[in-house]
Specification:
141 residues, rod-shaped
Amino acid sequence: MREEIEVLSRLASLRGHKVREMLGRVQYQQNLCQRYRNNITGLGRLCGFSVPMTTPLQRDNQQRYKATLYKMVELQRRELEVAEQTLARIQRELLLAMRNEKVIEQLVESRLAQWNQQLAQQEQKIQDGLAQQAWWRNQAL
């Protein structure tokens, strides 16, 4: 029983480590999504900026500049979508890992309770045996 509890405790420790690792991955992915959102906001502000144009060359230059900015915004939106999908997947994996960790913790606790109960029963048997011996000795005298 003791070896089983030790093995289960090590497994619980490994699962706890995996949960902490997954929490780190979730935090990283959330930060990545926020960076994409910030980039989209910043590029959107740049797209809204305009100055008076006096020559056709300046107007053409500004149109190309804004077209490039819009392409960058669209690219950032696609990257954000992928990052959010990845975040959702990692969060599902985290929930599964947390459930698995909790199951093992409960199993370890139940095994420890069983073991403690067995130890208490053994101790009670020893105490009963000693009491019986003392009673027999007292009867013999």
